[in-house]
Specification:
Elements (H helix, E strand, L loop, with lengths): L2 H7 L9 H18 L5 E6 L2 H10 L7 E6 L2 H12 L3 E6 L8 H10 L5 E5 L1 E2 L4 E2 L3 H8 L4 E5 L18 E3 L12 E6 L1 H8 L12 H8 L13 H17 L1 H21 L3 E2 L10 E5 L6 H12 L4 E2 L8 E5 L7 H15 L1
Parallel strand pairs: 2-3, 2-4, 4-7, 7-8
Antiparallel strand pairs: 1-9, 5-6, 8-9, 10-11, 11-13, 12-13
Helix pairs in contact: 1-9, 2-9, 5-6, 10-12, 11-12
Bound molecules: pyridoxal-5'-phosphate (PLP).
């Protein structure tokens, strides 16, 4: 974490309806619009981690019996499908092997077969595999239909462009602790006017009271009545605000470039050392590198040694990658060439 974010967390806690706090919330919402690339009025931070925002994104626009088309090529697409089923939706999965993108043509074909689908959902940055999912074609296809486009941008927002309006995304959510570089606990979300209309015309209220955007709008929205709904995590909101100020100071282009350069350098260096990249060529995330260890080495013991001997923590493989790959995050303040150097020195020492 950048020191300024830790400092922001320690500022005096005020009340959830304190005018100073409401002003910070308004400014957070305004800055989130810039980061998401949207004009959406209903843009705010959910009180909860990325999974809460993920749940909010579906719970608000799905009703029991609705059809949802969901791209599944890793942990987080699987979770979207699980959540939608729990909400009583009929789920049509469009699958791809882990490590490959969900083919936009497959998604569009599924939508042509089930045009009554209320939602199409895709994961922009699949953290379990390192895959960068293209969004433009599916967004353009859905724009002229009654189907809403839901996008998981938990690991992309703040590290690469998301372009909510340009891609005709109706509901987009993120988290704090990935590329925004803030401790976990508050999660950006945005709803298009189309999504808000859907929410207003629901046949029955959202099954989650806590995450009901219609209720939340009275608390979080500028010019709203600012009614108590729940007690916002005040100090977490200070931290998110500071994180967004840091992003503005750095500039979006510079920040995206920093993530790209660090990720590219790491991926090039690992390939040179005989590692294999798990994600499909041409669709690799710079901020999350999933790499298979050389020579069939078992990853667990080396990952433990990396933490214990070098103080560097990386993730292990999930699903088909379990036991054989590392997932290396270069996100937020961590996305630097210095960190890449440190990791490579540690890797060379461990594998020597
Ligand atoms: C981390 C993550 C989530 C869940 O966020 P939590 O903060 O762990 O609840 C959802 N989707 C993706 C793509 C993620 O990387």
């Amino acid at each position: 974490m950048a020191p300024r974010i830790l400092e922001a967390l320690s500022r005096p806690t005020v009340g959830h309806l304190d005018p100073q706090f409401l002003a910070i919330m308004d400014d957070v919402n305004r800055r989130l619009r810039t980061l998401f690339g949207t004009e959406n009025r209903l843009t705010f931070a959910v009180s909860g981690t990325g999974s809460a925002a993920q749940e909010a994104s579906l719970a608000n626009v799905l009703e029991p019996g609705d059809t949802a088309i969901i791209g599944v090529n890793g942990v987080f697409g699987t979770r979207l499908a699980d959540m939608a089923r729990r909400m009583g939706a009929e789920v049509v999965e469009v699958t791809a092997p882990w490590g490959r993108i969900v083919d936009p043509d497959d998604v569009i074909a599924a939508h042509r077969r089930t045009p009554e689908a209320r939602v199409v959902a895709l994961v922009h940055a699949e953290t379990s595999t390192g895959v960068h999912q293209p969004l433009a074609e599916v967004g353009a296809h859905l724009a002229g239909t009654d189907t809403l486009f839901v996008v998981d941008a938990v690991t992309s927002l703040g590290g690469m462009p998301v372009d909510v309006d340009a891609h005709h995304i109706d509901v987009c959510y993120s988290g704090a602790q990935k590329c925004i570089g803030v401790p976990p606990g508050v999660s950006p979300i945005t709803f298009s006017e189309r999504a808000v209309t859907r929410i207003r015309n629901r046949r029955r209220p959202c099954q989650s009271w806590y995450l009901d955007a219609a209720l939340l709008a009275d608390y979080v929205g500028e010019g709203a009545t600012r009614k108590y709904h729940h007690t916002a995590p005040i100090n977490m909101m200070y931290a998110l605000h500071e994180g967004l100020v840091l992003i503005e100071e750095e500039g979006l282009e510079a920040r995206f470039r920093r993530h790209r350069e660090a990720g590219d350098a790491l991926q090039r260096a690992l390939l040179e050392r005989g590692w294999e990249l798990f994600a499909q060529d041409g669709y690799r995330l710079p901020q999350l590198t999933a790499a298979i260890l050389p020579g069939g080495r078992e990853e667990g013991p080396l990952r433990r040694a990396l933490l214990e001997e070098h103080g560097i923590e990386v993730g292990g493989g999930l699903g088909p990658g379990a036991g054989k790959l590392w997932r290396i995050g270069l996100m937020g303040a961590g996305a630097t060439l210095e960190n890449v150097e440190r990791l490579l020195e540690a890797v060379d020492a461990l594998l020597a």
